[in-house]
Structure formats: structure tokens, C-alpha cells
Design goal:
By secondary structure, the chain is α+β, with helices and mostly antiparallel strands. The chain folds into 2 domains: 62-259, Penicillin-binding protein 2a (Domain 2); 263-299 and 328-623, Beta-lactamase (3-Layer(aba) Sandwich), CATH 3.40.710.10. It is 34% helix and 18% strand. Helix 14 (382-388) crosses helix 20. Its EC number is 3.4.16.4.
Amino acid sequence: MSSEPSIFFSDVNERQGSFLRRTFIVGGLTALGIGALGARLGQLQVVQAKEYATLATNNQFNFRLVPPPRGRILDRNGVVIAGNRPSFRVLVVRDETKDLDQTLDLLGRLLPDTVDRRRAIIRDVNAARPSSPVPVKSDLSWEEFAKVNLYAPELPGVMADMNEARFYPYGGSFAHVIGYVAKVTDRDIEAMKKRGETPPEILYNPGFRIGRSGIEKALDADLRGEAGGTRVEVDAHGRVVATDVGGSKPAINGEDVVLTLDADVQNRALEVFGEESGACVVMDVRNGDILCMTSAPSFDPNLFVGGVPSRIYRALADYERKPLLDKTINGNFPPGSTFKPNTALALLRAGVDPSIRINCTGAFRNGNRIQRCWGRHGPQDMHNAIKNSCDVYFYTLCNRAGVDLIRDTGLKMGFEHEFDIGVDNQRKGLLPSTEWKRRTFKRDPVWHPGETTSVAIGQGAVLVNALQLAVYTSRLANGKKAILPRLIKSVGGEERPSGAEVPDLPFDPAHIEIVRQGMIAVANDTSGTAYRQSQLGLGDIQMAGKTGTAQTRNYGSGTRKSNVWSEKDHNLFIAFAPVDAPRYAVVVIVEHGGKGGATAGAPRAREVMRTVLLKDPEMRERITRPPPPEPTGPVTEDPNFGAAPDEIVEGAVVPDAAPAAPTPTPSGPRPYQAPQ
């Protein structure tokens, strides 16, 4: 019996079960994927719909910071001395340009001068925030501006606009006192963080400028204003297609600052210096307002707004007459004979009788050293010693007061002080004392009487700045109040305190009047050291003053004359006017002028004072009055009048330092009468 082939299964459901398991697993995973996708789509479309709508809108709209217009700086009469001017510029936004190199290549064809600055531009763009517009070029001409706008559709991330750039209409006249603005640096940001301040977002804008020196720096927070912003719509290529006015925020202008300076006086002061180096300060002796604060030579601050080329900056920095230095507050000079009124006041405080006469023979023996006077004056009382600027008088009597009392008097008159005028970085100078000697010179800590002689005539270790001399002169002229200087009149319309809100001077008014009369004689007695150079020619208005010639080196046995600029003497002149009712004080320092104070300082001070008085309505009225009669008597014509002599005249009688003039009687000093 034959058998038929047959198939035997050990498990009839084995294959079927395997298939069902695979189907179940794949189906389950598919169901899970579809469920997860559905859940995610639900989350995106329902739960997070608003969030992604906002992100989409942000991709469509950009918010660009808009720098605020900087506040103006004005003079006392409302003349703008630091303002803003329109400026066309082209900018690049890194986030909106796909290829920066290609963009700069295209820009280089439109603006060829950007090719040379390509590396600096790339550095600025990379350092800026991604959405911050970076200036590529400012002060475009109209043709350049139009050309960039014409090709703007082909330049994604590039825009041309008009902004406001800082502008100084008077150039160098106010360069030092106002200062200038410049780019924000990493050091500025770090300095703010160290002070615990949070840097505003606008500081990261490469086109923003902050104050770098002077008033611009001191009042930067007030002048800066508050940044605004513009909300713009961009397409997929980053090009601006519309502006959302409703979403924009206007910038808030910075505060206007009004100074006490007078533009006409400031300009005239810089003009009279010509090529000379030095400083001029003018103060109102009634309230302390500073009408002029000029340092010469100067520089154009407009160069620094866009970034001064290194070769120009190097030339300014290396020039020996230091045009970048503010000599009114940062320059220290020996005051020379302009310090003698201070010494005279100290002598009066010490009880010295002003009518005592000291015989000037042209020289004074100080131990083994001979100190010279600039002339032979014969018998001199205090009045004539100030009028004739007699060194021997002050050499002989200075130790009656002593260096500490001379210093104390100087401190009360305004020396060795930093004044709160809103501008920092003032150099205090120095008035030496016995304590200073003990602290400074360990090998010889004792003050010797022979050292006082140099201090008495404003030499030796004595150093002052022009602002201090102006305060000193104003206090002498005022005669009552310890006047303080004021430079900032108002900020944002809010008035600053007057310099007249001060205590009285701690001196006997009779003593101040003795010194004042000596200064009046300097400029108005025909034998005074600055008579001819001090005549204002303004009716009956007269000026009082004091000349000064300060050595800058030790002459030894040689001549004081030199053709080397840095070896020449400084020339100084301090003055106030009118003498009968003082209103204004002027100080002029001619650095290394090489002449006497009467021939270098006084003529410049006279021209500045004339400008000040002619701007005063009440003073202009006085000019119409009949002038005083012409004085009679000899007038000194020596161009070096008031300067130290080249050498001692042989045969001159030299007083010894030891004997002093007779001590005043216990009953006090005799009544003083100015010589006729």
C-alpha cells in the first residue's frame, strides 16, 4: 500500500503567532508616533501658539536703538558752544547681512575710501551686538548718500540715514574747558561695572559717543539723554520694508548746560596769545562767575568726534607747548612777583609796620648766597615795594612772618585748593611749610630762614595754577568775601549756587586795602612796573595789577637770556578793574615768554579786560565820561622792566640777611598813608 507525502507541524500556530506579534509591535509603535506627533502639533498649535506667533513676529520686526540727541552747551548769553549738526552716514547690521565680506566689497565700489578702513570696520562689526547698526562711514556727501540709497536693495543689512553728530562751532577756543566726545571703549564699560553701575544698552552701540574730557565728561550723564528705538519690519533678506510707528519709542534729548563763560571774551583771549603758550582766566569778583578759561595753544575738538588719526594725535601730544594740556587747571607754575601781595598780607598779619623803609641796593646777602633784585630801588615801604616789585624788601622782612604764616595766608586766598567747578583733574600746586620740609626732605628736615626768601617772592617750591591766581586776585579785589569760582551756571534749567554765597575773608580790611593800593599804583603810577601797558583807554575806568617774572632754571653766574624756549622765564600778570568798584579780575600766564610780566602778560591782560568791560552795559556808560588828566612824571620805557637783571652791578651795597628792620612798637603799626 503506497503512502502519500504529508507535512507535519510541531506547532500549527507558530508562524501565525510570530506574524501577529510583529504586526502588533509595528502597529503599536506607529500608533505611538502618530499620537506623539498629534500631541506635539496640538501643543504647537494650541498651547504654544502665542509664543511662536511672537517669535515669528520678532523675526519679522526688529527693534533698533536710536541714540538720543546730546544736550547742548551754551555760554552765559545763550550762544551755542557745543551742539549737534546733521550728518549722513551708512551703517551695516551684522544679523541682516549674509556675507559681510561680499557686502563690504560692494560698498567699496560705492565708497572707495572704505576699502582702506576695511579691517577696522570688520573689527567694529564683530565687536558690536548682532542687531546693532555699525557706522561704516559718517559725513557722507549728498551724492554718496543718494548712491547708497539707490543700491540699497542689492545690499542686505546696509542702510543709510541721517543722524546728529557733535559739533564745536568755535573750534579750539573752548577745547579744554568743554572737552570733546569720543567712542565708548571696553575700559569705559569696565569702569562702570567696577563702580557698581549697569552700562546702558546704548553704550554698546558703535555709533554712540560719550564725554571724554572737560564739561562733556563731567556732565556726561546729564548731556547723554535717554535712548529711544525704532521698530522696523524686514523681509526674508533682512531688508527694511516698513516702520512700525506705534511700536517705536522716541529718544529723550540730553539736558542743556549753560556755562558762565562768555564766547566773545574766550575767543579774544585765545586770539591775543597768538603763537605763545599759556593760560588766561577771567572772573567776576562779585559772584565768582568765570567768564574766560583759555589755554593756549589749543586744538580742534571736532577732530576727536569721529576719531582723530594717530599721526595728528601724535603731533599734538609731542609738541613741546602741549596743546592737549589744560594750563588753566592742570598747569602748575611758580607765581613769581604776583605772589608778593600775599606775602605783604602775611607781613601785615605778623604786625609789620607798612611804613617801615628797607633800603634796596639791588642785592641781598642770604648767608653765603647773594639774591638779586631786578633794580636798585632805594628806600622802600610796603606800598612802594609792591608798586616797584622790590625783591629786597620782601627778602629782608619775610621771616618776620615766616613760611608757615605765608602759607596760611595763601591757603586763605585760594592757593593749593581744588575748586568745585564741575571739572576734575585739577592740580593743587604747592605752598611749602616747615611741616612739608620735614615730611619731604628726610636728610635736611629743618626749615632754614634763608629758604623763606624764595617763597616770599613766589619762587622756590611755590607752584600755583591760573584758576587759583584768579581766585586770589578776585578775593583781593572784592576785599570782603572769600569768593569761590563758578563755571556751571545751570543744568537742565536748574541754577547752580553762586560763588558769592561764602564766608567773609579772615583778614583786616585795612590790610587788604594797603595791598590793593600798591596794586593800583603798579598800573596807574607813572613809575609803576606796568603803567604804560595797563592803560585801558576806556574813559575814567582804571585797572590795578601786579606783574610777575618767574625763573624756570638757576641762572648761576650766567645770563637769564636764552634762545631755547623751555629755558625762558614765565611771564605773569594779575589785575582787576575798575579800581574804584572792582567787578572783574583777569590772570594771564605766558609760559616761557622770556620777557618781563609787564611786556608779555600785561598787554594781553589789558586786551582781554577791555573786551570784558566793553560787554558790560554799565561800564560802557562810564566810557563816555571825561577821562582823568594825564599824569606827569617820568615813564619807564625799559622793555625788560620788572625782570631779573643779567648780572649784579659792581659796587652795589648788599644788605645782610641777619639784621632786620626795627620791630614795631608795642602800641601797634603807625597809620598808613600811601606815598604821593
